[in-house]
Structure formats: C-alpha cells, structure tokens
Q: What sequence folds into this?
C-alpha cells in the first residue's frame, strides 16, 4: 500500500485539498510512529483549510486519529510498539495513513474503546469533557442550552450533561435533529428559527434563562445565546460553524444581566500529557458506563476528505464523521 496524506498548499475551498504520497519516517527522541486506522473529522479542519484559523503553509490537515504504534524513539514512556492509541490536538496532520508525532500526545486505548470510536470521540469528547468540567463547572439541576445538539460535540454534550443531572434544552437545525437530541436525553428539544429561540428558552425557564449556553455555531446564534442567558450566566462560545461571532460592545454583557463570555480552546485545558490523559479517562469512563454513546453517522474514505468536509459544512451530518485510510 502506498502511504499518503491529504494536505493544503494554500487556504481556500475544499478544492484546495490535495493528495500527497509520503514515506514513513523513523521516530526521533520522544516520538512515536502510528499506523492510523480511523481519523476524526471536525469543524476546526474546515476553519484551518479556509484560512479562518491561519496555518503555516503547506500543511497537513486533521487533529485526531486512532491506530497502532509501529515504532518509538528514545525516551518514550507509557507507550509501546503494538499498543492501540489515539490522540487529539497537536500540529495538523491526522489526515494520513501513517504519522510520526510527539508521543506525549498519545493516549492508550482501553479494550472497551474501539479505534473508530476513539477517532470519532477524542477531540469532540475531550471538548465536551473540558467544557462541562473545568470550563463551565456545570452542576446538577442547572438549566443549560446546547446549540447544534445533534452534531458531533453537541450530541456528546447532551448525553454528558444529562448524566450529571443538568436540565438540558437542546436546539437543532431541523425537527429530525431535534428529535435525535431528545432521544439522547434532552429535557426539551427545539428546532425553531434562531430569532425565536430566546423567547422559547424564557418560556421553558419561567423567564430566568439558562445558566450556561454551549454555542459552537457562532455568528448565526450569538443573538439567540445572548437573549437566552440567565443573570450572571455564562456563554461558552467554542466554535464558529456559521462564522465568527461579530464584534460586540462590553456593555451588551451588562445589559444581558452581568453575564460572562468565554472563547475557550482545548489546547489550554489539555496542555500536558497528564491533562490529556485525565480528559480522555473521563470520556472513556462515560462511554464504558453507557452515559455517553458515540454515534458515527458517516464514514468516508481518506481520499474523500473534501466531500466529507462539504457535508459537514452544509450541516448534512449527524453525530460524528470519520475518515478511513
């Protein structure tokens, strides 16, 4: 088999994605080479390809994958040849059949977690883990709003939040997707237009609004998020599926009820191998306990990366999407 990767030489549309033959490299100090069997697809891949998140070019693509360790360099601890591993984060380059990377990024996979599940869940599930825990510190009984609740991160958020006892109000782009969010445990599932969402949220919360909004949509949902938040609540803006949140005045936060806004990234909550493994352990525990089910809604071949990104950008996907080498 000829090894290859999908990469970009300049930012732009999906037509900028190219296939490039590669030769496996020997791991250096602190590195491992992984033969990849499943690769996760995420909105950040689109942001980087389009130039919204600029990359030094040319560049590989993709942030998460799972596979088997083929070789290790010197000074690698906790990882051995033959281990099943997964990773999320680090320099883009997951869209590849084989990859040599910092071994500190790798997380060993327990027997209960398949490679496909890991590739579908590491970045999205790790995102849910840090958003709910160290970022928002959600507590049982709190009312929360999850945008894009049938998507990759959204569907995990709904399940996880429900499992810890939060009252989840899910919003999705269609009645079908709202029904899916309801089946995941949401107390309420809506698919109304964005300009009607805040009123619907107020109606479900006795006028109070929600304590936390998890917003991965961005531009199209900002006004709805602002209108749905409770006094001294928190808007967690963690994605830009519809474009970046528009500039706003700080006084808007005061008028909304002295609210808080954060724009987090996983890299700041998983900076060390210990933090990465802790997030992964929490995710694997939730999956093994049955609290979180990872739905792989779509599978594409690695060579179809452009088609997969187009489907995600058009919001034609449900659950997670993976690429198979």
A:
């Amino acid at each position: 088999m000829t090894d290859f990767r999908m990469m970009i030489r300049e930012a732009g549309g999906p037509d900028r994605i190219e296939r490039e033959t590669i030769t496996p490299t020997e791991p250096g100090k602190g590195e491992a080479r992984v033969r990849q069997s499943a690769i996760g697809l995420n909105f950040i891949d689109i942001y980087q390809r389009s130039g919204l998140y600029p990359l030094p070019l040319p560049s590989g693509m993709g942030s998460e994958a799972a596979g088997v360790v083929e070789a290790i360099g010197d000074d690698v601890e906790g990882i051995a040849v033959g281990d099943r591993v997964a990773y999320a984060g680090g320099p883009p380059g997951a869209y590849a059949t084989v990859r040599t990377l910092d071994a500190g990024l790798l997380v060993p996979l327990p027997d209960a977690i398949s490679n496909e599940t890991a590739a579908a869940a590491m970045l999205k599930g790790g995102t849910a883990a840090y958003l709910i825990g160290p970022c928002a510190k959600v507590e049982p009984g709190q009312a929360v709003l999850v945008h894009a609740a049938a998507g990759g991160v959204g569907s995990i958020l709904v399940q996880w939040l429900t499992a810890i006892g939060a009252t989840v109000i899910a919003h999705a782009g269609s009645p079908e997707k709202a029904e899916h969010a309801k089946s995941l445990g949401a107390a309420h599932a809506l698919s109304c237009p964005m300009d009607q969402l805040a009123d619907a949220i107020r109606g479900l919360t006795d006028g109070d609004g929600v304590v936390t909004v998890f917003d991965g949509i961005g531009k199209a949902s900002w006004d709805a998020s602002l209108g749905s938040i409770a006094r001294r609540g928190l808007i967690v803006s963690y994605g830009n599926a519809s474009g970046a949140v528009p500039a706003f005045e700080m006084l808007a936060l005061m008028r909304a009820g002295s609210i808080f806004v954060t724009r987090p990234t996983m890299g700041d909550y998983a900076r060390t191998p210990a933090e990465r493994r802790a997030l992964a352990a929490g995710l694997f525990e939730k999956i093994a306990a049955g609290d979180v089910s990872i739905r792989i809604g779509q599978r594409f071949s690695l060579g179809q990366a452009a088609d997969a990104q187009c489907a995600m950008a058009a919001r034609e996907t449900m659950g997670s999407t993976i690429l198979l080498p």
